[in-house]
Specification:
Layout: E1 28-39, H1 45-50, E2 55-61, E3 64-69, E4 77-84, H2 95-110, E5 120-123, E6 131-136, E7 149-153, H3 158-170, H4 183-187, H5 212-226, H6 249-254, H7 266-273, E8 278-279, E9 282-283
Antiparallel strand pairs: 1-4, 1-6, 1-7, 2-3, 2-5, 3-4, 5-6, 8-9
Helix pairs in contact: 3-5
Length: 284
C-alpha cells in the first residue's frame, strides 16, 4: 500500500461523537458496577453485546438511566451502569448533582440481589435476550456497600491535555484533581510530548513555534504508540492512560491538521517523535 504524501491524504471516516449541536459545554458521568450481574442463559454473544446501553427495568429519570453494560465480556452476562446524560447536563447548571442524587436513591430502592424473584427486563425489546436474572450481588448485600467505577466525560481542549500530560511527568505527585493521586498511576503509560521533541523541526515545526494543541495531540498518540505492547487482547489502547478520548482520532486530528502540514506524512512525524522520551526532567 502506497504511503500518503501528507496528512490530508489519509482516507479515514469521521464518527459523529464530537460536540453537541449547540456546542455548549456538557458533562457526562458513568457509574459502572461489575458487582451487579445479570444473566440470560439463552443469549448469544452477539445478542449480549447488542444489549449494551439499553435501559434496565425502565429505571430512568431526568438526565439519567440505568443501563446494561458488557464490561464482563461474557456470553449471556451483563453488568449494570448508571449513565448521567452529558448531552443534556450542562456545566454550571447543577443538573449533574441532582441526577447523581437521584441515582443514589434509585439503587437503594432497586436493591438488586440474587434472591429477587422478579425477572429483569431490558428495553427496547431484544428478542430472546429480553429477560434477565440477577445472579449478583448475593442476598443480604446492602446496596449502599456496592463499589462503583467512575468515568467522567467533559470537554477538554488539546491545550489542557498537554498541560495534564506535562504535570503527570514533571510533578511528584500531581496536584490536578483530573489526575490520579499517586505518582505511579499519574505517569503510567503517559508520554509528555514537550517542545524539545520537535528539535529536528519536522515540517518546519520547532521548539519555539509548536503549539500546545499540537503537543496535546501528539502526547496522546505517542502514549498509545509506545505502550501498544501493553494492550490486552480485545481491549483498546485508549484504556491505558487515565485520560481517555471519547472523540475519535479523525475528529481530533482535524483540529490540528493545518498546523502540521508539510513534506512529512503524519506517520513520518510520529516516527521522528518516537525517537525521543521523557527522562526525569529532561528529553533524550
Amino acid at each position: 500500500m502506497e504511503e500518503p504524501d501528507d496528512c490530508n491524504d489519509v482516507d479515514i471516516l469521521e464518527t459523529l461523537d464530537g460536540p453537541t449541536e449547540d456546542k455548549s459545554a456538557g458533562i457526562g458521568v458513568e457509574f459502572e458496577c461489575t458487582n451487579v450481574i445479570l444473566q440470560s442463559k439463552g443469549c448469544s454473544m452477539e445478542d449480549t453485546y447488542s444489549s449494551k446501553g439499553k435501559t434496565i427495568d425502565q429505571r430512568q429519570g431526568t438526565n439519567w438511566r440505568l443501563t446494561a453494560d458488557t464490561t464482563l465480556g461474557a456470553q449471556g452476562l451483563l453488568d449494570a451502569e448508571y449513565i448521567l446524560d452529558g448531552t443534556q447536563i450542562k456545566i454550571g447548571t447543577g443538573a449533574a448533582e441532582q441526577a447523581a442524587k437521584d441515582v443514589a436513591q434509585d439503587i437503594l430502592a432497586w436493591n438488586p440481589n440474587s434472591e429477587s424473584s422478579k425477572p429483569v427486563r431490558i428495553e427496547p425489546y431484544n428478542g430472546p435476550c429480553n429477560t434477565w436474572t440477577i445472579i449478583k450481588p448475593e442476598y443480604g448485600t446492602s446496596s449502599s456497600s456496592l463499589k462503583w467505577l467512575l468515568q467522567i466525560t467533559a470537554p477538554m481542549p488539546l491545550e489542557v491535555i498537554s498541560d495534564l500530560f506535562e504535570e503527570s511527568i514533571t510533578k511528584n505527585p500531581p496536584s490536578s484533581k483530573l489526575l490520579p493521586e499517586t505518582n505511579y498511576l499519574a505517569k503510567r503509560y503517559k508520554v509528555y510530548v514537550s517542545p524539545e521533541f520537535f528539535q529536528s523541526n519536522p515540517n518546519g515545526i520547532g521548539t519555539s513555534n509548536v503549539g500546545k494543541d499540537v503537543l496535546g495531540f501528539f502526547s496522546l498518540v505517542m502514549s498509545y504508540a509506545k505502550s501498544a505492547d501493553e494492550v490486552l487482547h480485545g481491549e483498546s489502547a485508549k484504556t491505558l492512560t487515565s485520560i481517555m478520548p471519547r472523540t475519535d482520532f479523525t475528529s481530533i486530528f482535524k483540529m490540528i491538521s493545518e498546523k502540521v502540514k508539510g513534506d512529512l506524512s503524519l506517520y513520518d512525524m510520529v516516527k521522528i517523535l518516537a525517537c525521543y522520551r521523557n527522562y526525569e526532567d529532561e528529553v533524550e
